[in-house]
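Late entry, evening session. Most of the bench is empty. Finally got around to the prediction I had been postponing all week. Sequence below, unchanged from the version circulated by S.P.
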Amino acid sequence: MTSGPRSDRGIRRSKSSADAGAGRTTSKAVACAVFLDREQVASLGRLLREIEQFFDACDDTVGDAADAHFGIAPSAESISAALSLHVDALDAALGTHETAALS
């Protein structure tokens, strides 16, 4: 476990990241470990899977709006693929398919 300040949301930060957040600017990125329980990870995965399915199912109008907003084309397909990879990684971390979308 990481020592240091703990917020009420289950996020633990190392002392250096707490110092960096105290108004000091630094050119280095500070690593911050986040600890979530199994249920929270599964819930996050289900949410991301639902968003992935939304982008998979969106029509051309939504796709075009997403392209314009994000400045890449085809953004809906790119976002869907990225979400799929991340949710698959969550599934692998859980050792199950708990993040499968509800039917």
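Two things to note before I forget:
Residues 1-35 form one domain.
Confidence is low (pLDDT under 50) at residues 1-9, 11-20.
Will write this up properly tomorrow.
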